[in-house]
Amino acid sequence: MVSLGLVVLVLGMALAGFRKAHRAETWSWSKFALTLGFLAILIVIVTAPVVLMNPNGPHFFPVYVATWVVALALMVAFIFWARRWKFPNSRSSLETDRNQPPPR
Known about the structure:
This protein is an all-alpha fold. The protein has three helices and no strands. The protein has one domain (2-87). Helix 2 (29-52) packs antiparallel against helix 3.
Protein backbone atom coordinates (compact mmCIF):
# COMPACT_ATOMS: atom_id res chain seq x y z
CA MET A 1 0.00 0.00 0.00
CA VAL A 2 2.87 2.36 0.75
CA SER A 3 4.45 1.70 -2.64
CA LEU A 4 1.14 2.51 -4.35
CA GLY A 5 1.00 5.80 -2.47
CA LEU A 6 4.57 6.54 -3.51
CA VAL A 7 3.75 5.87 -7.16
CA VAL A 8 0.73 8.19 -6.97
CA LEU A 9 2.89 10.87 -5.31
CA VAL A 10 5.60 10.63 -7.99
CA LEU A 11 3.04 10.74 -10.80
CA GLY A 12 1.38 13.78 -9.21
CA MET A 13 4.71 15.58 -8.91
CA ALA A 14 5.59 14.69 -12.50
CA LEU A 15 2.26 16.02 -13.76
CA ALA A 16 2.68 19.25 -11.79
CA GLY A 17 6.21 19.68 -13.16
CA PHE A 18 4.99 19.03 -16.71
CA ARG A 19 2.24 21.64 -16.40
CA LYS A 20 4.64 24.20 -14.92
CA ALA A 21 7.25 23.63 -17.65
CA HIS A 22 4.59 23.64 -20.36
CA ARG A 23 3.18 26.96 -19.12
CA ALA A 24 6.68 28.48 -19.01
CA GLU A 25 7.40 27.03 -22.48
CA THR A 26 10.49 25.21 -21.22
CA TRP A 27 9.22 21.66 -21.83
CA SER A 28 11.66 19.44 -23.70
CA TRP A 29 10.91 15.92 -24.87
CA SER A 30 14.62 15.16 -25.10
CA LYS A 31 15.07 16.02 -21.41
CA PHE A 32 12.09 13.83 -20.63
CA ALA A 33 13.55 10.88 -22.57
CA LEU A 34 16.96 11.25 -20.92
CA THR A 35 15.33 11.45 -17.50
CA LEU A 36 13.35 8.25 -18.12
CA GLY A 37 16.53 6.51 -19.25
CA PHE A 38 18.36 7.66 -16.14
CA LEU A 39 15.51 6.46 -13.92
CA ALA A 40 15.65 3.07 -15.64
CA ILE A 41 19.36 2.86 -14.78
CA LEU A 42 18.60 3.71 -11.15
CA ILE A 43 15.93 1.00 -11.01
CA VAL A 44 18.41 -1.54 -12.36
CA ILE A 45 21.03 -0.48 -9.79
CA VAL A 46 18.60 -0.82 -6.88
CA THR A 47 16.95 -4.07 -7.96
CA ALA A 48 20.11 -5.89 -9.09
CA PRO A 49 21.09 -7.09 -5.58
CA VAL A 50 17.56 -8.40 -4.96
CA VAL A 51 17.64 -10.44 -8.15
CA LEU A 52 21.29 -11.50 -8.21
CA MET A 53 22.08 -12.12 -4.53
CA ASN A 54 20.79 -14.42 -1.84
CA PRO A 55 18.63 -12.22 0.44
CA ASN A 56 19.50 -14.45 3.41
CA GLY A 57 23.25 -14.13 2.85
CA PRO A 58 25.52 -12.19 5.20
CA HIS A 59 26.53 -9.62 2.57
CA PHE A 60 23.09 -8.81 1.21
CA PHE A 61 22.16 -5.96 3.56
CA PRO A 62 25.46 -4.00 3.24
CA VAL A 63 25.40 -4.39 -0.55
CA TYR A 64 21.75 -3.35 -0.74
CA VAL A 65 22.38 -0.27 1.42
CA ALA A 66 25.39 0.61 -0.73
CA THR A 67 23.32 0.39 -3.91
CA TRP A 68 20.72 2.76 -2.43
CA VAL A 69 23.46 5.20 -1.40
CA VAL A 70 24.92 5.09 -4.92
CA ALA A 71 21.47 5.53 -6.48
CA LEU A 72 20.65 8.51 -4.26
CA ALA A 73 24.03 10.13 -4.97
CA LEU A 74 23.51 9.67 -8.70
CA MET A 75 20.02 11.16 -8.43
CA VAL A 76 21.35 14.27 -6.67
CA ALA A 77 24.14 14.59 -9.24
CA PHE A 78 21.63 14.13 -12.07
CA ILE A 79 19.50 16.98 -10.71
CA PHE A 80 22.54 19.29 -10.74
CA TRP A 81 23.51 18.17 -14.25
CA ALA A 82 19.97 18.57 -15.58
CA ARG A 83 19.72 22.14 -14.33
CA ARG A 84 22.55 23.10 -16.70
CA TRP A 85 21.11 21.43 -19.81
CA LYS A 86 20.37 23.73 -22.71
CA PHE A 87 18.27 21.97 -25.34
CA PRO A 88 16.86 23.82 -28.32
CA ASN A 89 13.13 24.38 -28.30
CA SER A 90 10.70 25.99 -30.71
CA ARG A 91 11.82 29.51 -29.76
CA SER A 92 15.57 28.90 -29.99
CA SER A 93 15.81 26.26 -32.66
CA LEU A 94 19.08 25.55 -34.41
CA GLU A 95 17.32 26.18 -37.70
CA THR A 96 16.80 29.85 -36.83
CA ASP A 97 20.55 30.31 -36.46
CA ARG A 98 21.24 29.02 -39.94
CA ASN A 99 22.45 32.40 -41.28
CA GLN A 100 24.80 33.03 -38.39
CA PRO A 101 28.55 32.42 -38.75
CA PRO A 102 29.87 29.38 -36.89
CA PRO A 103 31.29 30.03 -33.40
CA ARG A 104 35.04 30.20 -33.04
